[in-house]
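Task card 7
Instruction: Convert sequence to structure tokens.
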Amino acid sequence: MVLLELSSGVFLLCGAAFYLAGTVGLLRFPDVYTRLHALTKADNLGLGFITLGLALQAETVASLFKLLLIWPLVLAASATVSYAIARRAERLGIKPWRRSSPSC
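Output:
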């Protein structure tokens, strides 16, 4: 029981760390495309860890399946919304960020 709670806590902390990394990427990256990449990758992985951590604490099988159903639904929604944002940015003529001088 202690091992289950400990592993659940570790998964929840890992998920929070990925959410924090996605937020830092949102604030630090230079353009809409790199920001989208940071958010979709980090937040989806963070949600996976949080869902797994909560699933380890589920009391019934029904609540376990509900928790495990959340992740693919959010993955599909996130991909759809990210695609729509990137497509709109491209149609508005927003160019991807390019480094001004090569660094060697």
